[in-house]
Design brief:
This protein has 357 residues and is mostly beta strands. The protein contains 2 helices and 25 strands.
Length: 357
């Protein structure tokens, strides 16, 4: 008895599928064993290609034809402007998550943070050359959702020739507390043995008291600024403009940064000792930064070398200081423990000697 498959014109696709399956079964069952690995490898390759195609369907790609801009040779009085063009060569939206210039001398502004496929955005970069000399390279890091290139680096570079040298290039005035005065100086020197005379100096924003003192027998000056104005904690940028009689440069600019730190909370405010006590004692001091900036201690100075000191961190924003072997003598009256922080701030805790009632 033989089995017959009914012939039906209403099911062509089913019949074709069945036919292909039977033929493939017959091929494998009668194929030489040497051909089976080849067939399997071909199937695996097709599967991998298919998976790769699926993965590459929706991927942004960042591209910049000119990643390095060479501005050639410039004078330190100039400001370099350049526009980088960022293009999305992928097939999904490119999202710029961050634009990070190397330092405060470089500014960068992006026209848009989301770039559709095939479109472009402009990044306007500005590099201030004041106070710099010689070969300069300033990178700008572009972070995006391009998994193949998540951090693209752009570079502005060139050579700065100058008639003057300003050392250091930026004047930094740092206060120990919001009310403390601050003073800083820089040296301005003529590099081509051309006579230099400064006739006036003034600050633009913060009220600085500026003084200029000429060095004997040299075409150079020491520029000193004092800052006494009360400001809220933070960082402020300013500049000092110098007027000169120089044949090429009638005006010089000095970049200024004023740093006003947050006051450090201290407990106790005084180290109180009993004048009748004869045994050495120890006292604990707690420091805390209310601005929630990292608090790190560089050094502890005590008025008596026989005293001991140690400290440990309390989280990221505080510290515990222990002063040991303290002898309650009248010599400590008016003396203080001085704690120097890594930010340049200092905290002083005075001793107070009290007679026991």
């Amino acid at each position: 008895m033989s089995l017959r498959i009914p012939q039906s014109r209403s099911y062509p696709s089913a019949r074709s599928a069945l036919t292909v399956a039977l033929l493939w079964t017959l091929l494998i069952s009668h194929a030489p064993a040497a051909l089976l690995p080849l067939a399997s490898a071909q199937l695996d390759a097709k599967s991998e290609n298919l998976n790769a195609d699926v993965k590459s369907e929706k991927q942004p790609r960042i591209f910049c034809e000119e990643t390095t801009f060479d501005f050639g040779s410039k004078d330190s009085s100039e400001i370099v402007d350049h526009t980088f063009v960022l293009k999305n060569t992928g097939n999904s939206d490119l999202v710029i998550t961050a634009v990070r210039p190397a330092c405060g001398c470089t500014a960068a502004e992006l026209t848009q943070s989301t770039i559709p496929p095939g479109k472009s955005a402009k990044l306007s970069a500005k590099l201030t050359l004041a106070g710099r000399n010689g070969q300069v390279q300033k990178p700008i890091l572009i972070e995006s959702n391009d998994s193949a290139n998540p951090a693209l680096q752009l570079v502005m570079q060139g050579v700065i020739g100058t008639d003057f040298q300003i050392t250091p290039s930026t004047m930094v005035l740092r206060r120990d507390s919001p009310d403390a005065p601050a003073t800083a100086s820089v040296i301005v020197k003529s590099m081509n043995n051309e006579k230099l005379e400064i006739t006036d100096a003034k600050s633009e924003g913060v009220k600085l008291k500026v003084r200029w003192d000429k060095f004997p027998d040299e075409n150079s000056y020491q520029i000193t600024a004092n800052f006494e104005e009360r400001l809220a904690p933070g960082q402020y940028e300013d500049k000092i403009t110098l007027k000169t009689n120089h044949p090429k440069r009638k005006q010089l600019e000095i970049s200024v940064i004023v740093i006003v730190p947050s006051p450090i909370a201290v407990a106790p405010l005084k180290i109180v000792l009993d004048s009748t006590s004869t045994a050495p004692v120890s006292r604990t001091i707690i420091l805390k930064n209310p601005a929630k900036d990292t608090l790190s201690i560089d050094k502890i100075e005590t008025p008596d070398q026989s005293m001991t000191s140690k400290f440990e961190a309390i989280g990221d924003f505080g510290a515990r200081v222990v002063i040991g072997n303290i002898q309650a003598t009248s010599a400590l009256a008016g003396q203080s423990v001085k704690i120097l922080l890594s930010t340049g701030q200092s905290v002083q805790i005075p001793f107070e000697i009290r007679d026991k009632p």
